[in-house]
Amino acid sequence: MKEEKPEVIPVQYVPVNYYEEDEIDLKELFLTIWKHRWFVVIFTFVVTLAAAIYAFTRTPIYEVKANLFPGFIENFKNPLINSSKLVVFINSTFDMSETKQKLPSIKAKLNKINKKIISITIQDTSNQKDLQELSNIMDSIHKLEKPIIEDYKKSILQQINILQEQKKILINDEINYKDIIKHTQNPHILNTYLQAISDIENKILSLNLKIENLKLRLSKIFIQQAKIIGKIEKHDYPVKPKKKLIIVVAFVTGLILAIFLVFFIEFIKGFKEDKSKS
């Protein structure tokens, strides 16, 4: 007896049009937003208006940037005040951004390309105030530099005085040796003192040369106090607040938030309806 095989019924594949479903979903989403269009418009307008009021009522802040080169004596390798110390001095003395006063905001830092140069950024309610603060900074630095310059000059004068004192001692020794020569008849002693006098005269010549070099150095000493190099960067418009950016961001944020609230409200309504039916 033959075993009967079960009849296989072919299953017809029905393609699902996902595009059509997506289109329907998007259409429903759009209709939901359109249904609450006035809420979206009003909410977005209120958020944008609040941001605009905030942007236009804030105090405008202007910015000035400058590069400062520290002062030095004779050459760049001998600075009056180290660049790092100047950065600390400027930030600790003039920056009010961390206080209740808030302004001026002054930030000094070492230049990324040349560590000897100090980049200064000043923010205040006008360019005039920024430039005045920059002038105050320079005046204060020059005041710090003056005693250093005076001490440097004094050190050279002290060296000259020490050499002159040494010269006086040698001259006195020379006079004494010459007096001794006048009263001695011993050839050995005479030659000894003559040699001593010759050595003293050579030492005096050497001291005279050192003294003249120091005096020349003092008279022609090259001193460069701290100064602003390059062009001072300033703008005719405030850097803060950025009104256009604030308004655009507020508009986009308000629109997104309004749409989110619309769908959230619809979700709550649907949830309540389902609950009431059950």
H and E string = HHEEHEEHHEEH
Mean pLDDT: 85
Low-pLDDT residue spans: 18-22
Counted beta strands:
6
Spatial order of strands in the largest sheet: 3-4-1-6
Per DSSP, what share of the residues sits in E-state strands of 2 or more residues? 5-15%
Q: Tally the helices: what do you get?
A: 6
Describe the largest sheet: 4 strands, antiparallel
- What is the alpha-carbon Rg in Å? 44 Å
Question: What is the helix content?
Answer: 55-70%
How does the overall form come out from the CA principal axes?
rod-shaped
Oligomer classification = single chain
Structural class: alpha+beta
* Head-to-tail CA distance between termini: 58 Å
Brief rundown of the structure:
Helices cover 63% and strands 12% of the residues.
What does this structure look like?
There is one protein chain. The chain contains six helices and six strands. The protein has helices spanning 18-35, 37-57, 83-94, 127-182, 187-219, 243-277, and strands spanning 62-69, 72-73, 105-110, 118-124, 223-224, 227-234. Helix 2 packs antiparallel against helix 6 and helix 4 (127-182) packs antiparallel against helix 5 (187-219). The radius of gyration is 44 Å and the shape is rod-shaped. The two termini are 58 Å apart. The relative contact order is 0.15. Residues 18-22 have low confidence and may be disordered.
